[in-house]
Amino acid sequence: xxxxxxxxxxxxxxxxxxxxxxxxxxxxxxxxxxxxxxxxxxxxxxxxxxxxxxxxxxxxxxxxxxxxxxxxxxxxxxxxxxxxxxxxxxxxxxxxxxxxxxxxxxxxxxxxxxxxxxxxxxxxxxxxxxxxxxxxxxxxxxxxxxxxxxxxxxxxxxxxxxxxxxxxxxxxxxxxxxxxxxxxxxxxxxxxxxx
Amino acid sequence: xxxxxxxxxxxxxxxxxxxxxxxxxxxxxxxxxxxxxxxxxxxxxxxxxxxxxxxxxxxxxxxxxxxxxxxxxxxxxxxxxxxxxxxxxxxxxxxxxxxxxxxxxxxxxxxxxxxxxxxxxxxxxxxxxxxxxxxxxxxxxxxxxxxxxxxxxxxxxxxxxxxxxxxxxxxxxxxxxxxxxxxxxxxxxxxxxxx
Lengths: 195, 195
Hints:
The structure is a homodimer.
Chain A: H1 16-35, H2 38-45, H3 49-56, H4 59-66, H5 73-81, H6 88-100, H7 103-118, H8 122-140, H9 147-167, H10 178-194
Helix pairs in contact in A: 1-2, 1-4, 1-7, 2-3, 5-8, 6-10, 7-8, 7-9, 8-9, 9-10
């Protein structure tokens, strides 16, 4: 995962843009926003740095593009909170862990966690997303007292789980089966939301 | 918090070393390991970069010194796990949150979280501490099946709580009273450990 250049992928042509984007996700994910450089990303992608600037402009623009997660809270939140109330906690944990089982989602998610926590660049993005998009939407549908604090508590457990399992990769939780984690963490989420 | 230089603290003299260390904790905490520079840290501390090198050597050495947390798992873990078993979860949450209420501990803790998650420098340190020092010690005293996974789950909730409350500072959890968080999160830790 550390080195992707030199894998013999084709150079130039129409896929340069997507190679640059994949390299950016990797680089931001490994070293955080501050540590990643246009030069290093270009090298990973096997292109000239000028081409990175050509397609994406400055580092901040490239990051914004790389961080563009297709998570739509207005679609996902109602979907998860619908269905039997007693299983909402387990559904949330399962939804997140199954999403992260996908390589592309996981790489992008790790990148976002790293940059959100690691420096200045990602924090406003993540905090803005959590505080203005995701959590109020969850809270708005709960119909319980202290809904906003409950949503924060859910975020704390999910964020910590992703951090220990996927970013720090502490064992045995890094390789624990999804079903086991759903069974252990689901009741926590359920209690934060409704008890 | 962003700018500490120019606060009119005395320059030179015997406290240069501790000023540099405090500046390093702040700088690593704000920008992560990769983003912090000896030059920037020297500027915050109001000293010449050569003095930083003189006292601490390279950036990696300065980081190691700044990250030297006085947390002794061999002392703390038995202390917390002693006492009534039914209250262990609450005691763990209270211990951590009360420790973080201290400015110095919080700054250092935020620095470690940021560097652990944000880049390469802190990760081995934090992962090593969690995986070799803290978690096996907790697990070793539990006398329950799957003790190591349980310890990981506890770490995930505590890490996520610290991240959302102190690093990302999402409201309302960032300003929630310690007692309220002990009451809400304590039972989670209790369940992960013993249920």
